[in-house]
Specification:
heterodimer; A: alpha/beta; Rossmann fold; 6-stranded mixed β-sheet; 10 helices; 10 strands; 36% helix; B: mainly alpha; ABC transporter involved in vitamin B12 uptake, BtuC; two-stranded antiparallel ribbon; 2% strand
């Protein structure tokens, strides 16, 4: 499904602020994989997602998605294959537009924008059904501006948007990090539901080790721009947080350093 | 004296509505695309110049106005390409085009101004027939608002709105933000040039200086319209109509202070100060009068309707 081959990215090269965020990263995802990603501060987790999404070009290496080399493809063109949810709930939706308009834009991701109506009546009915499944009462507020929703509600809508149009890959960048614990767990439940129902291949970054263990069928740990631990299937099911910390120290030769991860352990 | 003042009103309405059409163009860039586009100071004159030179050479007035519209769209295209292809910040891109247009407009007209009259040329509107002019101007207002209302409800129009609203989200949703930005600038400056063409006919002349400060008048109309109409109605068409009304109110006030004997040299300064203060109001409001949000009211942080 996704094949990342030896990609590297250095920010501000040649200056005192030079920072190698990805250092020969390779990763292969199979169809239907739900991978959780953990790692210390500056391990390159978000950078990896941005490299896949095309926020900028990588310095070297290649990214192949479902047989298509997307390494040099501009961000807006890759978007057709990808569903994305960001850490900041404000980032994934257009605040001044209605819920149905936001969904309609997502439904047209990667399609040509024509002079046909932006939201059809038939679509509105479909969106109502989809929103009902979120169980947040949003189906009653379909013409409300998204800016009026809470952070958790906005993330739920963004998740729904990301899942429309059956993306080849769903990218979740710490999408519950800005939410309070109760809301975060509700959004994670919605995430599981959406991923399972649509059988989406997913990469989810999280700072919470328990969540990383609980969700998905595969867990990777990153360090200094590379994958240092990759655990799948039965082995992952038996994991504990202590196991993970131990493995990290052994693989990286240093202590696990992620302020938020340590706090929420 | 009061009757004299009253006598200036139809003229103020006509002129205000023409500037209101221009302000609708400013609304598209300033409010929808979130770009302060200074091209308009030049493109207004471009529209007037194209219309004047064509009409005086005997071309049909409708053809002349269509050409003015297209010329305005090209000026928007230039600013858009400066911004997207060459990475120039939008304000500076607009200033560069505006400066270019000074020369272009002079070359179009061949001199600094062209006077023409409804007596010698077939014009659509003119001060000589204020009443029929008013009707035509309002036909333009209604048609332009109707077209824009429909356009911003289409897939393409929605992609433009989302670009102005959230660049990040738009790119993640596969919208080519460079294309939508250029498109917005093209539409906006087309409308501005069309209003320039109407203004030239109404005044009976096109002048190289006529667009100077147009952006400020446009912003004034947008602000007046928003202040008056945003609470009454959320409907997009009503908001655009509000902008035109804003233009009319601006010219009411303008005519009135002239009538009261204010030194006309000071008018541009006063306009700029008024617009500056109005632009500052939302900022001041946010800085000094923000209430602490109560979570119970906004349901902030709560994702569940039952929680």
């Amino acid at each position: 499904m996704l094949e990342i081959k030896n990609i590297s990215k250095t920010f501000n090269p040649g200056t005192v602020n030079a920072k190698t965020a990805l250092n020969g990263l390779s990763l292969v995802l199979n169809d239907g994989d739900f991978v959780t990603v953990i790692g210390g501060n500056g391990a390159g987790k978000s950078t990896m997602l941005n490299a896949i999404a095309g926020t900028w070009r990588v310095d070297s290496g290649s990214i192949i998605l479902d047989g298509v080399d997307i390494t040099g493809m501009p961000e807006y063109k890759r978007a057709k294959f990808l569903g994305r949810v960001f850490q900041d709930p404000m980032m994934g939706t257009a605040a001044d537009m209605q819920i149905d308009e936001n969904l309609a834009i997502a439904a047209r991701r990667g399609k040509h924008h024509t002079l046909k109506w932006g939201v059809t009546k038939k679509e509105k009915a479909e969106y109502k059904e989809l929103l009902k499944q979120l169980d947040l009462g949003l189906e009653e507020r379909i013409t409300s501006k998204v800016g009026l929703l809470s952070g958790g509600q906005r993330q739920a809508v963004t998740l729904l948007m990301a899942s429309l149009n059956q993306p080849k890959l769903l990218l979740l960048d710490e999408h519950t990090a800005a939410l309070d614990p109760k809301t975060a767990s509700k959004v994670l439940d919605i995430t599981d539901k959406i991923v399972n129902e649509n059988k989406l291949t997913t990469i989810m970054i999280t700072h919470n080790m328990r969540d990383a263990i609980k969700h998905g069928n595969r867990l990777i740990m990153m360090h200094e721009g590379r994958v240092i631990i990759d655990i799948k299937g039965e082995e992952k099911k038996k994991l504990t947080v202590e196991d993970l910390l131990g493995m990290f120290t052994k693989a990286s030769g240093s202590e696990f350093a992620n302020d938020r991860a340590m706090l929420s352990k | 004296m009061f009757l004299n003042w009253l006598g200036t009103l139809p003229g103020a309405v006509a002129q205000g509505a023409i500037w209101g059409i221009m302000a609708v163009g400013v609304y598209i860039t300033y409010k929808i695309l979130d770009i302060a586009d200074l091209t308009v100071d030049g493109s207004l004159c471009t529209g007037a110049a194209v219309c004047a030179i064509m009409v005086t050479s005997g071309v049909n007035v409708w053809v002349a106005m269509l050409c003015a519209l297209i010329a305005g769209m090209i000026t928007g295209l230039v600013t858009g390409l400066f911004h997207t292809l060459m990475g120039i910040p939008p304000i500076l891109a607009g200033i560069l085009t505006q400066l270019m247009l000074w020369s272009v407009n002079l070359k179009i007209m061949g001199k600094a101004n062209i006077a023409f009259s409804a007596r010698n040329n077939k014009l659509l509107i003119s001060t000589l027939q204020t009443n029929t002019s008013l009707i035509w101007i309002f036909v333009f207002v209604i048609v332009i608002i109707a077209i824009l209302y429909c356009f911003f409800g289409t897939e393409l129009g929605m992609s433009l709105r989302s670009t102005g609203n959230n660049l990040h989200m738009s790119q993640a949703q596969g919208i080519n933000i460079n294309f939508t930005k250029v498109l917005g600038l093209v539409i906006s400056n087309g409308i501005v040039a069309l209003s320039g063409a109407l203004l030239a006919q109404y005044q009976g002349y096109a002048d190289i200086n006529m667009g100077r400060g147009a952006i400020v008048i446009g912003l004034a109309a947008v602000i007046i319209g928003e202040t008056l109409f945003s609470r009454i109605a959320k409907n997009f068409a009503v908001r655009l109509a509000g902008v035109v009304v804003g233009g009319i109110i601006y010219f009411f006030v303008y005519q009135t202070v002239i009538f009261l004997g204010l030194d006309t040299d000071l008018l541009k300064m006063l306009s700029a100060i008024v617009v500056a203060v109005f632009l500052a109001v939302p900022y001041w409001k946010k800085k000094y009068f923000t209430k602490v949000k109560s979570t119970s009211k906004t349901n902030g942080g709560e994702v569940s309707k039952n929680a």
